[in-house]
Write a structure and sequence with these properties.
Strand content of chain B: over 45%
Number of helices of chain B: 0
Strand content of chain A: over 45%
Mean pLDDT of chain A: 90
Mean pLDDT of chain B: 93
Order of helices and strands of chain A: EEEEEEEEEEE
Largest interface: A-B, 26 and 23 residues
Shape of chain B: globular
Structural class of chain B: mainly beta
Radius of gyration of chain A: 14 Å
Helix content of chain B: under 10%
Oligomer: heterodimer
Distance between the termini of chain A: 34 Å
Helix content of chain A: under 10%
Largest sheet of chain B: 6 strands, mixed
Number of strands of chain B: 12
Number of strands of chain A: 11
Low-confidence stretches of chain A: none
Amino acid sequence: DTAVSQTPKYLVTQMGNDKSIKCEQNLGHDTMYWYKQDSKKFLKIMFSYNNKELIINETVPNRFSPKSPDKAHLNLHINSLELGDSAVYFCASSQIGEPNSYNEQFFGPGTRLTVL
Amino acid sequence: AQTVTQSQPEMSVQEAETVTLSCTYDTSESNYYLFWYKQPPSRQMILVIRQEAYKQQNATENRFSVNFQKAAKSFSLKISDSQLGDTAMYFCAFVSGYSTLTFGKGTMLLVSP
């Protein structure tokens, strides 16, 4: 059973399009995240949701809108895609504050987005 | 704000040898967690080892061990008996409280026969 899953794994699209990436976790965690990994492999947090509420929103264009319908899902919608949005996007989840949890984050397999 | 620095962009080692990847961090927090993640070509992020800041004993997981020096804010990863499957990008990461992971820029490790 996959702990954190993302769909699709690959996404190729044209500039200006709107696309969504879905994420689901079956670990019962209360917190989910989106990270962006650029072409130089640098990983940076974009958003964090705790119990369906946005708790962290880094400096990300407002073309990016996360949506959390429930604790197990955190989707990422991107409007008006630009060339610079090409990257690998990782979803992750964790259980915050639980003793001995280390706040460890479990990652999905990533979605490689290519904007042409 | 926390920062994590990995000063070695690339490293090479031969099979069966030992290699150490360095990581330093900066924080004003007293309790936090440190991690090493491995990202092979499959791009999956795999947790290698973790350390709680208040534990003085260095964490060990089979061939992987850390040298955690809290005063120096250093958290290096030692890989013993390197294997070809260890070839990957290695990321050092920091988290405290309700914050998210802060990653270093990564070290690309190449293990050759």
